[in-house]
Specification:
The chain has 392 residues and is mostly helical. 81% of the residues lie in helices and 0% in strands. Helix 4 packs antiparallel against helix 9 and helix 8 packs antiparallel against helix 13.
């Protein structure tokens, strides 16, 4: 099994490397073509809206029986087209908006689909999912270090070329990726012909979505606007790669730990709360950091928080939603982070940035994980209910 599953490790490395070389640096690119703070926030939110729409639609299509490998390969093609439109548009809306939509469709669709394929392949050992998913932070760190250093030497134009190369490698991985036969069987299990999505919207699932939404707001402060803060506070974009690597190192280690924690049946709502506590410590530290190197341990902690949320959500989904809509529900979870959460965070950070400056925005950022802790408490109350009542 190890040899067959190696393709999943390769996927996580390459996909997240491709994501790292473009999405965290779109703000830098926007600024290079003359966009102000509010425009950067608006276009970040537009991208997130496209991510939410395209991801949800593709998840629904995947659950209707469309060949998954075809969807994955098409997503890589859309990523190439989208990047070309964005970087060659020079700020023209007629090309920039469709480019953002195609880029969002490229990055929204693969991860939840592949997550589900891997969990199906693992069977009863699905707690091992985190051991594979931890290669994503490794890929993100590689992409971030390459891109940040390339930008400091060659300028923002190099983002396009690095991303196109990553997309070519990712397309090759999609042809190598094994598609378990059980994936098709699960999509065929539809009581009465199909299961409507509203039947999956249990209180527990809605609470999972809410927690991931809040985390998506946190991520705008961890990635999209942090690069701008570094430039404004220290004028040293080169340090961005080191900081992003620290974030990914935290994720890598935390994903490895999550397999052991889930295997020991640690309560998932407690793991969610732990993730938000780490984010809380991170944002308080960022607001007082006097040197960019002080961000390294802080972003390590923040990076470690995400696996607590994502692995817990991944594990819980199989017990709270029907198998026939699992891809749709996974896409919704992903869309909460990079869609709804990013929209809210992008607009909020963009508004405060424009009116009061980034220093004020980061001074208030600690409030975001506090809301996440409240959601974790609500989930704890729900998970204490009898199982039958929770699934109503």
């Amino acid at each position: 099994m190890g040899g067959r599953l190696a393709a999943y490790r390769a996927y996580y490395v390459v996909y997240w490397c491709a994501s790292a070389v473009i999405t965290p640096y779109l703000g830098i690119f926007y600024r290079s073509i003359g966009f102000d703070g509010m425009q950067i926030g608006a276009f970040s939110s537009i991208y997130a809206l496209f991510f939410l729409i395209s991801g949800s639609a593709i998840g629904y299509i995947a659950d209707r029986g469309v060949p998954l490998r075809l969807l994955l390969v098409l997503s890589a093609c859309s990523g190439v087209a989208g990047a070309l439109l964005i970087f060659l548009a020079e700020g023209k809306l007629a090309a920039l908006l469709p480019g953002l939509f195609l880029l969002a469709a490229c990055l929204a669709s693969p991860s939840p689909i592949v997550d589900n394929l891997l969990i199906i392949s693992l069977g009863p050992d699905r707690f091992r999912y985190s051991r594979f998913r931890r290669y994503g932070p490794l890929g993100f760190a590689i992409g971030s270090v390459i891109c940040s250093n390339a930008i400091s030497v060659f300028g923002t134009a190099c983002i396009l070329y690095i991303y196109l190369l990553a997309m070519a490698v990712l397309a090759a991985v999609y042809f190598w990726l094994p598609i378990p036969a059980a994936a098709g069987e699960m999509r065929e299990r539809k009581p009465g012909g199909h299961v409507r999505l509203n039947e999956a919207l249990s209180p527990a699932f809605l609470c999972i979505l809410a927690s991931l939404w809040v985390w998506g707001i946190c991520e705008q402060g961890m990635f999209q606007y942090l690069n701008l803060l570094i430039v404004e506070r220290w004028d040293d974009i080169g340090i961005s790669g080191i900081i992003s690597s620290a974030t990914m190192a935290g994720e890598f280690i935390a994903y490895g730990a999550m397999s052991a924690l889930l295997r020991r049946k640690i309560s998932t709502y407690l793991l969610l709360a732990a993730g938000f506590i780490l984010a809380l410590v991170q944002f308080i530290g960022i607001s007082f950091a006097a040197s960019p190197y002080m961000l390294v341990p802080l972003l390590f902690l923040g990076g470690a928080g995400f696996p607590f949320l994502w692995s817990s959500a991944t594990d819980m989904l199989h017990s709270v939603v029907p198998a026939s809509v699992i891809n749709t529900c996974r896409e919704l979870c992903s869309a909460m982070v990079s869609g709804a959460g990013a929209i809210t965070g992008g607009l909020a950070y963009g508004f405060v940035y424009s009116r009061y400056g980034l220093e004020t925005a980061y001074g208030l950022s600690f409030l975001i994980p506090v809301v996440g802790l409240l959601v974790s408490f609500i989930l704890w109350r729900i998970m204490k209910m009898p199982e039958a009542k929770m699934e109503d």
